[in-house]
């Protein structure tokens, strides 16, 4: 389909002149304008960098919503607005190097740069994204919107407020400085779990009744147990042994990967740990022969990696949802996780839970049980397949559309330009 604007944007030659010349939706002939009853513009930036859980959320939610009548969807990728879901980058190497270099900057400088980038993107958003009914902020900090456009914010977690020490200092400072100030402009809130909804009330003072829960889902067409020859082929491509434990995710401190390392040191007879995902700021040297770092793995290879593992080990200390748990279960992989934050909502009764996420000996004991007991692994795998059936992306889309519709109803009842407003607290008062 024809894009709204193919101009060059942030990171690709954005200048003051290009901002002036960029055209809004109102500048296009009627054939390219939205004519349906609800017009939605989505922050699609999570799709154009390295693909994480938030990127998967945006991708799958809007593939589902795009099939529904009565709505038109546009995607703002920081440079332009299009009707086509942005594709993931072919390579993540450049993004990874740039991000790690950014973290080496003095925190005040990095905060200033991040604020300037956000401001430039916001100016372009305001110019291009006129005439929409709903602006869906899918990532973090809402842009200001043109008059008449309602803002819906998805909150994935509040780790930057709850545990700022687990994040780069510049990111925590930026969030603390700007996020709460933007909340009064938000007209509707989505939380990805009941846990996150409670956190929003506790840390931000938002009435939980104003927050709709829209749990993430799992695409069983993309995540299911592959054929044995495909599992073997992927295992050989990544030089993995026949028996291994698997962790999928970034190297952020909250993921608690160091606990698995400590557990395997206590149990040297156990198979090694394979780690798939961007390393983040995890600079710990790999344990000799006990840790296999795969780096960022293509989505197409993940099902075989999950299916070939003895277990998926996910001892996270804090999650807003925990999508990799569903991915592992959909592929028949047993799951070990913790009972913290949102994780019990996702894993239900289909996982082994680590009672003390600071105790490597306890984790080593669970891993020994799984290694020695094929019946336990089979039982957990079957329970996981039943659990994932509770999380279709269709349900995510249904909850999202209910909030969009109620937000539109309030828009019709309010004076033009009136926002929803929200009572909120700063970190110092929380």
TrEMBL record:
Residue ranges, annotated region (Disordered): 410-430
Q: Which Pfam families match?
A: Glyco_transf_4 (PF13439), Glycos_transf_1 (PF00534)
Q: Which InterPro entries match?
A: Glyco_trans_1, Glyco_trans_4-like_N
Q: Where is the Glycosyltransferase subfamily 4-like N-terminal domain?
A: 53-221
Q: Which GO terms describe its molecular function?
A: glycosyltransferase activity
Query: Which part of the chain is the Glycosyl transferase family domain?
Result: 242-384
Keyword terms, alphabetized: Glycosyltransferase, Transferase
Biological process GO terms, please?
lipopolysaccharide biosynthetic process
CDD domains annotated for this entry? Answer: GT4_MtfB-like
PANTHER family tied to this protein: GLYCOSYLTRANSFERASE WBBK-RELATED (PTHR46401)
Q: Which protein, by its recorded name, is this?
A: Alpha-1,3-rhamnosyl/mannosyltransferase
Species for this entry: Humidesulfovibrio mexicanus
Species lineage, top-down? Bacteria, Pseudomonadati, Thermodesulfobacteriota, Desulfovibrionia, Desulfovibrionales
């Amino acid at each position: 389909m024809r894009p709204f604007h193919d101009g060059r944007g942030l990171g690709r030659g954005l200048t003051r002149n290009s901002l002036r010349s960029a055209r809004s939706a109102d500048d296009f002939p009627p054939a390219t304008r939205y004519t349906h009853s609800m017009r939605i513009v989505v922050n699609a930036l999570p799709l154009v960098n390295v693909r994480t859980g938030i990127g998967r959320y945006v991708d799958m939610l809007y593939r589902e919503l795009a099939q529904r009548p009565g709505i038109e969807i546009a995607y703002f990728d920081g440079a332009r607005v299009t009707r086509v879901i942005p594709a993931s980058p072919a390579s993540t190497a450049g993004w990874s190097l740039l991000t790690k270099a950014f973290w080496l900057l003095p925190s005040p400088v990095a905060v200033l740069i991040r604020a300037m980038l956000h401001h430039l993107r916001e100016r372009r958003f305001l110019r291009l994204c006129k005439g929409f009914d709903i602006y869906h902020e899918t990532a973090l900090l809402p842009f200001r919107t043109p008059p008449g456009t309602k803002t819906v914010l998805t909150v994935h977690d509040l780790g930057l407020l709850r545990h700022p020490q687990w994040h780069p200092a510049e990111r925590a400072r930026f969030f603390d400085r700007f996020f709460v100030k933007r909340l009064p402009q938000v007209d509707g809130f989505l939380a990805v779990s009941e846990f996150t909804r409670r956190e929003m009330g506790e840390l931000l003072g938002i009435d939980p009744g104003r927050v709709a829960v829209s749990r993430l889902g799992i695409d069983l067409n993309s995540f299911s147990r592959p054929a044995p020859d495909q599992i073997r082929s992927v295992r050989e491509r990544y030089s993995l042994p026949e028996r291994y434990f698997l962790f999928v995710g970034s190297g952020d401190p909250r993921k608690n990967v160091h606990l698995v390392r400590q557990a395997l040191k206590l149990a040297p007879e156990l198979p090694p740990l394979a780690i798939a995902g961007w390393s983040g700021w995890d600079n710990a040297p790999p344990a000799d022969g006990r840790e296999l770092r795969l780096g960022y793995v293509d989505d197409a290879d993940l099902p075989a990696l999950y299916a070939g593992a003895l277990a998926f080990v996910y001892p996270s200390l804090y999650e807003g949802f925990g999508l990799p748990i569903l991915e592992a279960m959909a592929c028949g992989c047993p799951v070990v996780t913790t009972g913290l934050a949102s994780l019990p909502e996702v894993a239900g009764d289909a996982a082994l839970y680590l009672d003390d996420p600071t105790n490597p000996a306890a984790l080593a004991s669970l891993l020994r049980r799984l290694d020695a007991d094929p019946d336990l692994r089979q039982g957990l795998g079957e329970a996981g397949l039943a659990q994932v059936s509770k999380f279709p992306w269709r349900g995510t889309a249904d909850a999202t559309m209910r909030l969009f519709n109620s937000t539109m109803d309030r828009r019709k009842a309010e004076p033009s330009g009136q926002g929803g407003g929200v009572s909120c607290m700063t970190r110092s008062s929380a």
